[in-house]
Amino acid sequence: MRQRRHILDLTQQELADLVGCARITLRRIEAGALKPSKELAKILLEKLGSSLTKGDEWLQFARGLSGLPLQSISLPPKPNSNLPASLTTFIGRKKEQSEAINLISKHRLITLTGSGGVGKTRLSLKVGEQILGNYVDGVWLVELAPLLDPLLVPRVAAIAIGLRDEPQRPVIDMLRDYLLGKEMLLILDNCEHLLDACAHLTNTLLKSCPQLKILATSREPLGIMGEAIYRVPSLGLPDLQQLLNTFRDFESVKLFEERAQLAQFDFSLTLENASSVAQICHRLDGIPLAIELAAAKVGTFSTRQIAKQLDDRFSLLTEGNRTALPRHQTLRASMDWSWGLLTESERTLMRQLSVFAGGWTLEAAQTVCNGNVLKLTNSLVKKSLVVIDQEMGRYHFHETIRQYANEKLVDAGESDLLRDRHLEYFLNLAETAEPHLIRPEQIEWLPVLDADYENLRSAFEWSLSKESAESSLNLCKALGWFWIIRCYWLEGLNWTTKALAKPAQNVNKNEKVARVKALFTNAQLNWQVGNREQMQSPAEKSLALALEVSNKKDTAIARFVRGSALRLRGDSNDHALLLLEKSFAAFQELNEPFWQARSFRMLSFLLADQGKLRDHHVYQKTLEFGRKAGERLTLADALSDYSDWLFRINQVHEAKQYVEESDKLYKQIGAEKSSANSLLLAGIAWVNGDYPKARSMYIELKERLALLGDRDTPARCMNLLGLLAMDEGNLQEAQDYFEQALAMGQGIWNKIYMALCLIEISNLRYHQGKLEEFKRNFREGLFLKNYFTEYDKAYILMIILGPLYLQKPECAARLLGIINNYDKEDYFQFSPIEKRYCGSAEAHARKVLGNAAFESAFAEGQKMSLDEGLDLALKTVEEM
Questions:
Q1: Contact at 8 Å (CB) between 452 and 393?
Q2: Interhelix angle for 866-879 vs 771-781, to 10°?
Q3: Residue 290 CA: distances (Å) to CA of 282, 347, 625
Q4: β-bridge partners, 110
Q5: Sign of the CA dihedral 272, 274, 275, 281?
Q6: Which of 196, 356, 481, 759 has a CA that sits 20 to 30 A from residue 687's CA?
Q7: Measured between alpha carbons, how far is residue 69 from residues 26, 55, 444, 647, 726 in Å?
Q8: How far is CA 72 from CA 64, 68, 80, 568, in A?
Q9: Which of 856, 723, 858, 877 shows the shortest CA–CA distance to 804?
Q10: pLDDT band at 236, cuts 50/70/90?
């Protein structure tokens, strides 16, 4: 239905209006979550399927009562393109589409510019779809957002249009020669961080390829001759006309509108100003005088300008009613009046309380401030200057009052002293909470840090202004696990990077120890977002410094992080093994169950990589350590690992039970990053034949983790989406996903993962009928053969079964014998997804060869090594 709707260029809403149902109904049908009624199915068939015969069979299929009718659907021819199918409806932008298309008709290079998030990419893709038929050789998207190295820009462009490296030939020359006679549009997306490289590539190609056109998106122009620049505006406001009357029901909004009409008689709430008016009322905390003073400014400023200037509200909100009392003529006068009514002790506390951001507890105020805090706070609450949240036991100012009191704090020369006390208190709070975050009581301590996170941010900012780096470094270590659990990965990286960049000032041992902890925190945060290379340096420095100045526990943690970094990069495995073994032994001696569990988990992964540990009890042992630690994140990870192993031995139901237990633990602590669980649940849906659910889960996970800064898992999701599309027979879709995975994987995955991805693409090439590309990709994928683990080698043989078993059943039988040696219950298990060709290969080989010949070939394979299997596979591929 989605495919045919796109052919007719209908949005979900337009189709819903056409057939007379709700848009949510169509969305659920397209997602595979709902089957249409008989009546709705008939209407949909009439509107979308007029060219389809066997209407009754299609109705049965639509309602889930029969299989897909045996009929090939004639679709209109479509030019070559790798433009991705839209996952959400494209809204509006008719004017922008028309203007961009007009520019493309006149110029050869058009750059869509604008701020981040304004929609440049979505507009470029929509424009590409609209003019696809104008280009004989298609419209091709080159995604540059994941790319970090400018030297790789030509290579990624070549991969995007389907080219592969040619030995001894520069990629730019290959691109230029290929595009020389092509009538094509290239879309270079997200150029801003690679401007020089994109400008050079664009200039070279446009000069050499007269029929080529390029549409670029960037936050700033490329800056080369002939470039036409189109600035993409923000989206227009939604149609709120039906909501304006409800909007007026809010007292603060009604007050603003009525007072504004006194200053400008024709003022009224409109679609254009409703958002700004709401922002003004909110930022002024609903204070009537402040709202009246703001409304009086509409004769001079737009509501948007008023909202923008509220950061300096005491200068803006002046010149009120001249006949009113002086304290009602300006916001500052009003605050001055209230201030004048306070005792000196109350003024002192008001000033000092303004150092808190986002509120405070009574304990915090008593530690940071002077005087009888309990009595004076009670007085300020009564005077409506301080607001109390009885349920939470917290206090806060309205922002207007806090700004005023903070000005008084600065004027009194007390700001630095109070901020020092504030920093000391919240550093102590973070350090007190830290050990509890890796124990069962973490569930009680996480909300404590949540409630004061604005204060912790404020303390961090102040710590970075100090001459010594010690306090900022200690905050990095104390908040490390909080950032990881709460998925504040990018923010934590930003703080730790700034803290580590501070120069050492008369470095003492305490500061060095703090630096050790900040370094391994920085490394672990890089790990979370998939920055495997970026984690190497801080991990190495942390260990070197720990060996010099730190205690046994910190040194063991630094060894664990350094060993993990080496293992994740895929090299120096002997060194990594030594580091992880030492860290595990130290944690056992120190009786640190949390760190025992984490180090044993990583050590087990490394031993499995090296083929030295295959016993499945490792998963149960990891789970045992996790339960002993009692900390939910580690236990959830261990349960996830165990459920993954159960899935691999095809105990799908049991796997689902354990992964659901793992998810409950993640949710208890608010850790929504459980990518392993999402991948596993998607895999379970896949093997159960629920392809739409698996696809939606991979896409959701990719988008969610990309927002959190993770670059590794989204690339893997694209790779898995490619495999899933192949299983469904959607080869072009699979190619798009694989190429995106390769582009995203540049600079993230190690070379072995990239090699495996190439071999998966070779499988695709075979099924596309591109035999030479199939052979070349397979050869390229084996270029790191000597570095593959036994798992890698066995997995490659399982991939290549897909192309081989139909044409070379005897070879397939031998490969199955080899694979069988490495896929036993007491050995490392391959998942049903990884083994997806094995069943078909065996059935076909037995049918063609007969049972006796199959068993003979299978037995021969059992005597062969994995390396011999790879040699056999390569030889067979070359002969095809």
A1: no
A2: 160
A3: 11, 22, 59
A4: 215, 228
A5: positive
A6: 759
A7: 22, 9, 57, 33, 20
A8: 19, 10, 21, 47
A9: 877
A10: very low
Q: Give the integer Cα–Cα distance in Å for 876 and 869.
A: 10
pLDDT in tens, 464-490: 999 889 999 999 999 998 998 887 888
Sequence-ordered strand ranges (E) for 474-537: none
Q: What is the spatial distance between Cα 605 and Cα 589, in angstroms, rounded to a whole number?
A: 22
Residue type, position 74, single letter: S
Return the structure tokens found at 866.
Answer: 């994995």
Give, for 121, the enclosing helix (H) or strand (E).
helix 120-130
Backbone angles phi, psi at 189, to 5 degrees: -100, 130
* Nearest one of 428, 450, 661 to 442, comparing CA atoms: 450
Contact 182, 79 (CB under 8 A): no
In this structure, the strands spanning 360-361 and 394-396 are antiparallel
DSSP state letters, 183-205: -EEEEEE--GGGHHHHHHHHHHH
- For residues 112 and 122, give the distance between their C-alpha atoms in angstroms, rounded to a whole number: 11
pLDDT digits (tens, 9 = 90+) for 382-441: 776 788 887 788 998 877 778 888 888 998 999 999 999 999 999 999 999 999 988 878
> Do 333 and 366 contact (CB within 8 A), yes or no?
no
Task: Kindly report each contact of residues 225-230 with a partner whose C-beta sits within 8 Å and lies 24 or more positions away, as own/partner.
Answer: 226/107, 226/108, 226/109, 227/107, 227/109, 227/110, 227/111, 228/103, 228/106, 228/107, 228/109, 228/110, 228/111, 229/110, 229/111, 229/113, 230/96, 230/99, 230/100, 230/103, 230/110, 230/111, 230/112, 230/113
Residues 46-67 as b/e (b if ≥16 CB within 10 A, e otherwise) read ebbbeeeeeeebbbbebeeeee
Given a contact cutoff of 8 angstroms between Cβ atoms, the answer to whether 515 and 473 are in contact is yes
Parallel, antiparallel or unpaired: strands 212-218 and 109-113: parallel
Comparing CA positions, the residue from 596, 598, 556, 601 lying closest to residue 579 is 556
Q: Could you give the CA distance from residue 476 to residue 522 in angstroms, rounded to a whole number?
A: 8
What SS3 string covers 690-703? CHHHHHHHHHHHHH
pLDDT, tens digit, 9 for 90 and up, residues 708-733: 677 778 888 898 999 999 988 899 99
Strands of the sheet with 139-143, listed across from one edge: 139-143, 184-189, 212-218, 109-113, 227-231
Q: Are 529 and 489 in contact (CB under 8 A)?
A: yes
User: Is the model more confident about 606 or about 227?
Assistant: 227
Angle at which helices 153-160 and 195-208 cross, to 10°: 60
Three-state secondary-structure class, residue 93: coil
Q: Which domains does the chain have, with CATH numbers?
A: 2-62 (1.10.260), 94-231 (3.40.50.300), 241-334 (no CATH), 342-413 (1.10.10), 418-550 (1.25.40.10), 770-880 (no CATH)
Beta-bridged to residue 227, according to DSSP, are 109
Tokens 């050079």 correspond to 200
For residue 228, the 8-state DSSP code is: E
pLDDT digits (tens, 9 = 90+) for 109-167: 999 986 545 578 878 999 999 998 899 889 999 998 778 788 889 989 988 888 876 76
The gap between the terminal CA atoms of the chain, to the nearest Å, is: 39
User: How buried is 597 (Cβ within 10 angstroms: 0-12 exposed, 13-18 middle, 19+ buried)?
Assistant: buried
Please, which residues have CB within 8 angstroms of residue 684's CB and are 6 or more apart in sequence?
647, 652, 655, 656, 659
Of 103, 113, 154, the C-alpha closest to 743 is 154
For residue 562, report the phi and psi dihedrals to the nearest 5 degrees.
-65, -45
- Whole-number Cα distances in Å, 42 to 11, 45, 548, 558: 20, 5, 77, 65
Question: Rounded distance, CA 586 to CA 405, Å?
Answer: 52
What DSSP element (H or E) covers 15?
Answer: helix 12-19
